[in-house]
Design goal:
The complex is a heterodimer of chains A (204) and B (377).
Chain A: H1 8-15, E1 21-25, H2 31-40, E2 43-48, H3 51-59, E3 63-66, E4 81-86, H4 96-106, E5 107-115, H5 120-129, H6 153-163, E6 165-174, E7 178-180, H7 187-190, E8 193-200
Parallel strand pairs in A: 1-2, 1-4, 2-3, 4-5
Antiparallel strand pairs in A: 5-8, 6-7, 6-8
Chain B: E1 4-5, E2 8-12, E3 16-17, E4 23-24, E5 27-34, E6 44-48, E7 60-61, E8 74-75, E9 80-81, E10 86-90, E11 105-106, E12 111-112, H1 122-135, E13 143-147, H2 149-160, E14 167-171, H3 179-194, H4 210-224, H5 227-233, H6 252-267, H7 270-282, H8 285-290, E15 313-319, H9 327-339, E16 343-349, H10 357-360, H11 362-374
Parallel strand pairs in B: 1-7, 6-10, 6-13, 8-9, 13-14, 14-15, 15-16
Antiparallel strand pairs in B: 2-5, 3-4, 5-10, 11-12
Helix pairs in contact in B: 1-2, 3-4, 3-7, 4-6
The chains are: A alpha/beta (204), B alpha/beta (377).
Chain lengths: 204, 377
């Protein structure tokens, strides 16, 4: 959906152990799954709604299911996967809480990337131009943009806490390809994007 | 490339054993082939036809204006590319287009079998195709593919002989009939049997039960189209506006069904219709492959041959408006094979064309199938 998430690939590859079972929700053209299959020998399955993308995945030899992740995750049995990935897709789903819960039902770990609406440039754009839609990197307008959820890193983390989900690891992406491991005070202002490795919290 | 073909008939003069335990003394198998087998003999693809199909899947018969039933999908540069693959299609066992079925002569009586023809199963159809393949010198298939009942055969073959097949493609199909699907078939069979000309199946020396069979086909055709497509195509348009002409086809849709029924009875045997729909209703892939009593297939009763499936590939395609074999049933197939560790992909094509989309919506299908076949060697 976005062009950038290639920067997430090294992080995701690092987080995923070799030979594991991976479900990639909104897998696009299958680039990430191809890389994971090649580098990490994962058994991967992609889920994608667009038919053009399905054809591209099949071309790459990726297993892919055409489905709407907002509706169709219930068919998977509990703990079918080691990792369930939602990369550059969270912004496009209509029921994020439900999808995140399903991810941690069908998989042991979830990996979710979040485009930060609290990022400085987005804030400036809203203030200076009075426009909210141009931050989607697709230059589409508000009415046809796939991005329907605007969330900041802080808000996302608060939701995880509310859902009782434990953050095992995270990375934050700054401009100029800088990657931060730790949270520092201004991360919600300076990070363009964050990525989180999650599991169900132990205390409920 | 020469696009003229003819149907060949393989005559097998040794007994052929059926799931029921019955033996057929003699077996004819009608088939066609397109493209050519490579030296490594690893480019063969078996195409399976649906209920009313035949061996003539593609190209033209001498003098014909209409090509085979899946010519949009099979040919040079098409989804099943005959420049790359050797395509085989045979008429199913129990059929009436050249392969042995209830209309064939029973060697014991020298009359048509009629209802003396033993019941057949999806596995029997598959076994007969293996006889053909071995005759053609083909030990391995790159793929086995089919729509509707063709998908059922493809999955049965794939599960029974995983070491012989690299991949399967199931289009607009299911791994078992639901109560509703059995019900539709039963109404079709009853229509045939209620026709007095059916005469307990013995009509070969008189007139065939055309009225009954055409009603069966009309019911079938309703299930092949979506409501939306029917409405767009026919709506409430009347061909015959004579108000006194009641109980005669007047609406366009009535004429359409009438035509479908009439053209079907010219080419199809009523008893074949009964036998084949019975095989479809009794098809239950899971039960059949996990049964310890099964007589044929690899690794019988031990489930060990499922290990063989791990390196195999599958492609499942459904159509959004297909209410005969809806996407929900395709997803069951996907879940079954994923559970068996087959590398399976699933595409749900958006269309208003209902079940018939597997014959008509060839552009999307071709893209998907071409990519799938090219993704492994």
């Amino acid at each position: 959906m976005y062009k950038i998430p290639a920067q997430n690939y090294p992080v995701i590859q690092q987080w995923i152990s070799a030979g594991s079972r991976v479900l990639d929700l909104g897998c696009g053209d299958g680039t990430l799954l191809s890389a994971l299959t090649r580098e990490k020998q994962v058994e991967g399955i992609g889920v994608e709604i667009s038919q053009d993308m399905i054809v591209q995945c099949i071309q790459k030899g990726i297993c892919v299911y055409q489905a709407d992740i907002d509706k169709d995750l219930s068919e998977w049995k509990d703990d079918s996967f080691d990792y369930v990935i939602l990369n550059a897709t969270l912004q496009a789903i209509s029921k994020p809480y439900r999808v995140i819960e399903e991810m941690l039902r069908v998989g042991r770990y979830a990996i979710i990337s979040v485009s930060n609406f609290g990022y400085l440039r987005n804030r400036v754009r809203v203030l200076a131009q009075g426009r909210v839609s141009s931050h989607t990197r697709l230059s589409s307008s508000w009415y046809d943009s796939p991005v329907i959820r605007f969330v900041s890193l802080k808000e996302f983390e608060a939701s995880l806490a509310q859902m009782g989900i434990e953050v095992m690891d995270s990375r934050f992406f700054l401009p100029l390809d800088k990657v931060m491991r730790r949270k520092w005070p201004l991360y919600n202002l300076l990070a363009r994007e964050g990525i989180f490795k999650l599991r169900k919290g132990t205390q409920e | 490339m020469n696009r003229i073909v003819k149907t060949h008939v393989l005559k097998v003069n040794r007994p052929f054993r059926l799931d029921s335990g019955d033996l057929l003394e003699h077996l004819d198998i009608a088939y066609e082939t397109y493209g050519s087998l490579n030296d490594a003999k690893d480019n063969a693809i078996l195409i399976e036809h649906a209920l009313s199909g035949d061996a003539h899947a593609a190209f033209y018969h001498e003098g014909d204006k209409k090509p085979g039933w899946w010519d949009t999908m099979i040919g040079p540069g098409k989804g099943f590319d005959t420049d790359r693959y050797f395509i085989i299609c045979s008429n199913v066992l129990g059929g009436c287009s050249g392969t042995t079925g209830p209309a064939s002569i029973n060697p014991a009586t020298l009359k048509p079998y009629a209802l003396r023809f033993p019941p057949i199963t999806m596995r029997d159809m598959v076994e007969s195709q293996r006889v053909l393949l071995s005759q053609l010198g083909i030990e391995r298939l790159k793929c086995i593919a089919g729509g509707s009942m063709g998908g059922m055969q493809a999955m049965q073959f794939f599960c029974d002989y995983p070491s012989q097949v690299q991949s399967f493609i199931s289009i607009a199909s299911t791994m078992k009939h639901s109560a509703q699907q059995i019900a539709f078939n039963e109404v079709g069979r009853r229509a045939v049997m209620a026709d007095p000309r059916w005469n307990g199946g013995n009509y070969y020396e008189s007139v065939s039960p055309e009225a009954g069979l055409s009603v069966a086909r009309m019911i079938g055709h309703i299930t092949y189209l979506s409501e939306k497509m029917m409405q767009e195509k026919f709506g409430r348009i009347k061909k015959d506006k004579d108000a006194r002409a009641i109980f005669r086809p007047s609406f366009e849709v009535e004429h359409y069904l009438d035509y479908q029924g009439i053209s079907f009875v010219k080419r199809f045997d009523a008893n074949s219709y009964l036998y084949i729909t019975n095989a479809i209703d009794n098809f239950d892939l899971m039960a059949s492959i996990s049964s310890k009593e099964r007589l044929r297939g690899e690794g019988r009763g031990r489930g060990r041959h499922f290990d063989e499936l791990k390196t195999k590939r599958g492609l499942v395609i459904s159509f959004s408006s297909d209410w005969l074999y809806p996407p929900s049933q395709a997803k069951e197939i996907v879940q079954l094979f994923t559970g068996l560790n087959v590398r399976v992909s699933y595409a749900e094509i958006s269309t208003d064309h209902g079940h018939d989309a597997f014959l008509t919506d060839y552009v999307n299908q071709s893209d998907i199938i071409r990519s799938f076949l090219a993704s492994f060697s």
